[in-house]
Design goal:
Length: 952
């Protein structure tokens, strides 16, 4: 429980220096016994020194209720004060106790903290303006002012006394040079919120909004913005104060992959006045258009997007072939660099430039487009979290380096995800650390959509960009997430909240909430029933409903333990995303139940129709609440129907044909039948504690009574008799085996049980298999025609020096994947040099036509000409190479990203009962193996994989 109370609190902050420290701590008084320290910033410094000093003073006021005096100063200070400025300025050098080392002074965006031995002064000094600001905000965080204090209404704990315990500290240089966010698809949140609520003077995302965003970026140790650019928003340069504030805050301004030379084509290119955006036929107007902006941005800190596409996220106009496009682009790039050289810097290589290798541009790059060495190659994900390509060995030698543009929000095919932020944190870590390890660390940009509700993933991405070394261990993601929530809600609740969020991301990894309609867009299709099975595999539909119900219950329990001033923050960061995701899942899952049960003429189909409708109403109410919290501060920020796609609509469920002349019905799990027409449950396996269900339900009758007749001792049911009525329309009975009683009964392998209902009798066959009675415990076995093994559950892992199989915890449907890791990008085609994963299956079927499904994450080749291959060997059969690589926006790729699975089928023969061996050889680096399924019959496999359930 977080305690908020007024009292005498000493805040002890221990800064462990990365370069050097002094041995003893110095306690510095900020506010004690009614005395408040002053804040001084370098009078000859930059604009950000003043901004940072005043924001620190505001933060101290938030904590203590008293705001320090803030003054510019040049001279040596003798009074108690916090001093802010450049480490090389006279103002700071006069007051430093120890001179910093040369290697520190050479670092970019770094800072030192130093307290004087007489305890009078705390110095915060940076190697540049942003370094100083990061130092200032490091103090703010330690005082208890969260970077999201404004954007997520994180309250600040009040203190009557404030002291900090400081060691001399030198920060490291950030891992990535340019780190920032892209405001995109802002039409349904950020723009209407700003226009109608926060910034009514411009009715747009303008300088007032950008100032809040720039402060957030600095508090998150970021430095770069790609401004909003949809038709709903005016161009960044339309409002003169936008670039002015960017300069004041020392924020680097860039532009998206479709907006060369800091231009917003959607808003600024007037086709009627300027003609076509075509460099072949209208070169002069396009050139002048770029030139005007470059002159305007002469004194800005900017990254210039180089190249040319269509006006808005489309292919380049006026070219009929890849060869022609390459020729035009070469001309474009030469002219753009001439403008930079003419107006910005004669040394054009000294000006940050980015060429984003996105969509069709990747194909042009592969077809011979030459990019000057000093331009940063910015690689992209496939819009769904999987990076399409990264720098190869030669590209890593480029002076401009490499970078990544990554999505946490997306508009487009096969389906948008603009509403909730559900990209799995472990996937972000895996993909971005892969990029970092391959030296793509010049520019990292995250498409955050409307910022909210992507707060945590934004924090994760930018923290990784600032200090990637912390994230080398995959398990650190879970620790990072708990730290994020601990700083807001307290350490006592952080673990519980972290567990809820882990489950939330895992369920969304299985299927994002926006994808639950099984529909697509561009073109937009109608919704369909989901692929989850209602009557098979333990009722996958109900299992998913229960999983969401469980985390919803935990969300409510945690909320009940929070003080009132944290509940609004909790609603934004946890409650709304979890509850809204649960509601849209239940909307479709209850719809599935209703439609499936309608085919069986169950009366309960109407109940599930109502539950589906109620789930839709829950989303409406949750969203209404979001737009009312904080006294209406966020009114308009949350839209539950971005782009008004079918997935967000109220469900349509036609039950006009549900009624039937039969009174009641009985159905068994999987609806299997024997040769004699008797229904049978799936086979039970000795010592396995599986359960299977029987559904008993009303059709036309208003009531019914049912009971099992003389069950054998070894067959156990969850309920032996019951009554159905208008309040209880159906009953699900679970059948299990008491294995001790089964042995006492002589180990029977088959039994017929009977259910009597209203004078009618239903026979159900029970089968038992003892095929695995003598195999090792926890073995992976074929049951009912299916065997499943997780990739991380290998028997052996034989490692080679070139590519190693490494376990990545927290990722994949199975909870951990095995990644083929190498930084050389070289495939291994000699299997003697490969790393080998070995697995064992036990089977009860002999067949020449079994199918082995190899499931991996849908990652892409590490480099532009690479593959995503492994080699597979079943028993002693010949080794077979399979490739998970997909082409463009193929149907295979669409299904892969919608389900976060890439599945390849291998036909195998099972020549004898018992143990079978599977070997997986590494070929290409970057492959992430998730799980394997062996099918010995034509049955489908579960859509949902129950990673919590052992395979034995």
């Amino acid at each position: 429980m977080v305690k908020f109370w007024l009292g005498i609190i000493i805040l002890l902050i221990s800064f462990k220096g990365s370069t050097q420290t002094i041995e003893r701590d110095i306690v510095f008084d900020i506010y004690t016994q009614g005395k408040l320290t002053a804040v001084f910033y370098d009078a000859d410094g930059n604009s950000l020194d003043s901004i940072s000093a005043n924001l620190l003073a505001d933060d101290i006021a938030r904590v203590t209720g008293h705001r320090p005096t803030v003054k510019p100063e040049k001279k040596e200070i003798h009074e108690s004060a916090i001093l802010i400025g450049s480490v090389t300025s006279n103002f700071i050098k006069k007051n430093l106790q120890d001179s910093p080392k040369t290697e520190f002074l050479a670092q970019k965006e770094s800072y030192l903290l130093q307290a004087s031995k007489d305890k009078k002064q705390l110095i915060i000094a940076g190697t540049d303006a942003r370094g100083t600001a990061y130092g200032v905000f490091s103090i703010s965080k330690k005082l208890g002012v969260n970077p999201w204090y404004w954007w997520a209404d994180v309250p600040v704990e009040k203190k009557e006394e404030l002291k900090i315990n400081v060691q001399t500290f030198y920060s490291k240089e950030p891992s990535v040079s340019y780190r920032g966010i892209f405001l995109n698809d802002e039409d349904w949140g950020l723009q209407p919120w700003a226009a109608n609520n926060f910034e009514t003077e411009t009715k747009d995302i303008g300088p007032k909004t950008y100032e809040q965003i720039f402060e957030l970026l600095l508090r998150l140790n970021a430095n770069t913005i790609w401004p909003a650019m949809h038709p709903s928003t005016k161009a960044f340069f339309y409002y003169p104060r936008n670039p002015e504030i960017a300069k004041k805050y020392h924020i680097v301004v860039g532009s998206s992959h479709a907006e060369p030379m800091l231009r917003n084509n959607v808003d600024e290119w007037d086709k009627e006045k300027m003609g076509s955006f075509n460099y072949k036929t209208n070169k002069e107007n396009v050139y002048n258009y770029w030139e005007t902006r470059v002159k305007e941005a002469e004194k800005m800190d900017a990254i210039y997007t180089i190249g040319m596409r269509g006006v808005h996220d489309s292919g380049m106009e006026g070219v009929s072939s890849k060869e022609e496009a390459v020729a035009v682009l070469n001309d474009v790039i030469n002219d753009q660099r001439f403008l930079i050289k003419k107006y910005i810097n004669k040394e054009v290589s000294a000006v940050p430039q980015a060429f984003t290798v996105y969509k069709e541009v990747l194909d042009l790059y592969k077809n011979g487009l030459e990019i000057p060495d000093d331009i940063t190659l910015v690689w992209t994900d496939d819009n769904y979290g999987y990076i399409r390509s990264l720098s190869n060995a030669e590209e890593r030698k480029r002076t401009g380096g490499g970078g990544v543009y990554y999505h946490a929000s997306y508009w487009g095919r096969p389906h948008d995800y603009l509403w909730l932020s559900t990209t799995h944190p472990s996937l972000i870590r895996e993909e971005m650390m892969k990029a970092y390890n391959l030296n793509n660390k010049e520019i990292w940009i995250l498409n955050v959509g409307d910022i909210k509700p992507a707060e945590y993933n934004t924090q994760l991405f930018l923290d990784m960009a600032y200090n990637a070394e912390k994230f080398r261990d995959p398990s650190y993601v879970e620790e990072h997430q708990q730290e994020f929530y601990a700083t807001i809600f307290g350490a006592d609740l952080a673990k519980s909240i972290g567990e809820v969020q882990n489950r939330y991301y895992k369920l969304a990894f299985e299927r994002k909430p926006e994808f639950m309609g099984w529909s697509q867009t561009e073109p937009t299709t109608s919704i369909y029933q989901t692929a989850y099975k209602t009557l098979s595999y333990g009722d996958e539909v109900q299992q998913r409903i229960n999983a969401y119900g469980d985390i919803e219950e935990k969300v409510d329990l945690i909320e009940g333990k929070l003080p009132e001033n944290l509940k609004i923050t909790y609603f934004q960061l946890v409650k709304y995303p979890v509850k809204a995701s649960a509601a849209i899942n239940k909307k479709f899952l209850y719809r599935d139940k209703s439609l499936t049960y309608a085919k069986q003429f169950r009366k309960s189909a109407h109940k599930y129709k109502d539950l589906s409708y109620n789930s839709y109403k829950d989303i409406v109410e949750l969203t209404k609440t979001y737009n009312q919290i904080s006294n209406g501060k966020w009114n308009g920020i949350m839209d539950m129907k971005p782009r008004r796609l079918p997935v967000f609509d109220k469900p349509e469920i036609d039950l006009s044909d549900v009624y039937y002349k039969q009174l009641a019905g009985i159905v068994v799990e999987d609806t299997l039948t024997t040769e004699t027409g008797i229904d049978k449950l799936p086979t039970f396996y000795v010592n396995n504690f599986a359960s299977y269900f029987i559904d008993i339900y009303l059709k036309a009758a208003n009531n019914a009574q049912w009971k099992f007749e003389s069950l054998p001792e070894w067959v156990k049911v969850s309920k032996s008799s019951g009554k159905l009525n208008e309040d209880d329309l159906e009953e699900r009975v679970y059948v299990t085996i008491d294995w001790k009683a089964w042995r006492t009964a002589g180990k029977p392998l088959s039994e017929i049980i009977k259910i009597e209902m209203n004078g009618r009798e239903k026979k159900i066959q029970i089968n038992v298999s003892n095929k695995y009675a003598s195999i090792p415990e926890d073995s992976f076995t074929e049951k009912n025609g299916v065997a499943m093994v997780y990739a991380h559950s290998y028997l052996k892992n034989k490692a080679s020096e070139k590519i190693k199989w490494n376990k990545i915890e927290g990722l994949g449907h199975s909870g951990a994947v095995m990644q083929a890791e190498s930084f050389e990008n070289l495939p291994i085609l000699n299997y003697k040099e490969a790393s080998v994963l070995e697995y064992e299956f036990y089977t009860e079927t002999v067949t020449d036509k079994a199918t082995l499904l190899i499931t991996a994450l849908p990652t892409h080749p590490l480099t532009t000409n690479g593959d995503v291959r492994i080699a597979v060997q079943w028993n002693d059969d010949p080794i077979e190479i399979i490739d998970f690589k997909t082409k463009g926006r193929s149907e295979a790729w669409k299904q892969n990203v919608l389900s976060n699975k890439a599945i390849k089928e291998v036909e195998v023969a099972i020549k004898a009962f018992g143990k079978q061996t599977l070997k997986i050889y590494s070929v290409d680096a970057g492959v992430c193996l998730d799980y394997f399924i062996l099918k010995t019959n034509t049955n489908t496999v579960p859509y949902k994989l129950m990673s919590e359930t052992k395979n034995n």
